[in-house]
Here is the input.
Amino acid sequence: MARITLERVGHRYGHAPYALEPFDMVLEDGRSYALLGPSGCGKTTMLNIISGVVRPSEGRILLDDRDVTVVPISGRNVAQVFQFPVIYQSKSVYENLAFPLRCRRWPIARIKARVAEIADLLDLSGRLGKPAWQLTVDEKQLISLGRGLVRDDVAALLMDEPLTVIDPQMKFQLRRKLKAVSQKARHTVIYVTHDQNEAMTFADEILVMSAGKVVQRGTPQELFERPRTTYVGYFIGSPSMNVFDAEIGAGGVMIGGTPIAPGGALPSGLPTSGLRVGIRPEYASLAQPEDSDTLAATVVGVQDHGSVRIVEVAIGTARARLKLGRDIAPPSAQARIRLRRDKLCLFVDDHLIAAGI
Amino acid sequence: MNGSGFRAYKLAFLLPGLLILLAIILFPLIFTIRVSFSSWDAITPGLNNAGGINYAKLFGDVRYWQSLGRLSLMAVGTVLLQYLLGLGLALLVWREVKLRRFFRVLFLVPMMTTPVVMSVVWRTIFHESLGPANDLLGMVGLGPFQWLTSASTAIVSVMIVEVWQWTPFMFLLLLAGLLSLPREPYLAAAIDGAGPIRTFFNVTLPLLAPVSIGALIIRLIEASKIMETVYVLTSGGPGTATETTGYYIYIRGLRDFEIGYASALSITYLVIMIVALTIIAKLLVKVFIGERT
Here is the structure.
């Protein structure tokens, strides 16, 4: 268990542009972090730098206060779960779990006790004698995790999209188990994923990445309520945030000529161009008769997602999506909608300058 | 569509393939079986009906069974050596990227040369008084050895040439296998703290098992037909010390013209080989992969 410090760490492959632009970051001991971003955004590069697979072209990495920048994988005391389960095919489940301890020359009695403890934690106790190749994919993934957990010298537990090859039904259970187990073990966990649901449910803090940069770091709630850029707004949430081009007029912030929050407190010195307004589909709703500040909208389409319906509407020339509960009847052609003023995000040049107007 | 009934057009589609198969595989085989039940030889050529006399004779033919025993020793011995050497070489150049191209070509030279030609070259090398083998060993105070004229060394000489010629094939197959291995198991082993030896036995060897089995079986099938090397190097001698089954059948059939008897030997040899190689293949799978099949 350790605090991970990255000092001006950056990486480029050969002379290519930065895969990871130089940045500073501290990951606190015992917390779980998710690296979230689309393919090619640098999240795996960052993970590989921490695990020691890749040596960064710039900067230093410290585990607690130990500089491990040039230390190879074996000397770093990290554990890693890969995208595809990695097991020792020729060994039993017990031998798989005992392998890291045998490499560390633990006495047999101690290995036995430790493996039993971890197998119990992972619900693998009943399968210890089985050949590992006979297990299902999700159980194999648990073995990969278990080989990290049995060790007592693990500074950080790294997971590289560990649920990619798991069936959707098993995914949910395995994710819960990964979370429970890693919380119990109180490891510093870094979890790489491009699935925002996994990131939101798994981690204490999420680092959203884009094109080699950490765009925003925060709790799932912060990312949802106050996305620092429109990119984060798009990336987090399903469906993504509605973002409209906006201007400042007589009635305050206007979308397509319609004021959306008359009389709102606007930050001073707003520029005249590059202004955009964002709102989560969860915070847009059909207006009730007594509501003020409503907008006229034309219904373009309705998607049924089971528990909710996504209603797509046109407000002037802008498009927006609303998330409606199953019990609310979707409007037919014309509707009036209401955007929660306290949840409006104001962006200038795609950067958040105010949340709530 | 109703696929169960016989349709003439189905036969029409199958027939060309079936006929070719019959012509090139089954006909020679069936013809040989037929010949083995005849007493076709130099004096009374032609197919007659001799019953099982050739097979009865074969059971008492000590020279035949000895050649089979010798062949087993040579085949298993050389193939094992080829595997160990090939794997060793492949592991050496596996990570070495710089000279890989050069080594690949260099190692392939023995495989690309004609066995008969190389056997002649080796026969010259092994020449007792004129060959460089004894010259070179003499410089470090060893020998001279009777490479091809003593029973115990002649078989070793034949095996050396076989190993020399076919190790590149093993090397090539195993190198291709190594290069196709995934990277993650090695990272996982490094993370688990395994050293190079543990990594080799727990990661490389199990992952390479399918390729190993394939290479060993292909080579065993090939090695069970050792013929040219023996023919050129020792002609089966001294005495019958290096006579393999293939060479013995050749002597019986094409030098003594006992066509009927040689056919019986061939058919017996074929059956023994099929049974032996099937068992060996099963054993190899068990050794390399254990119960997981």
Summary: Residues 213 and 284 of chain B are 6 Å apart (CA to CA). Residues 62-289 of chain B form a domain with the MetI-like fold fold (CATH 1.10.3720.10).
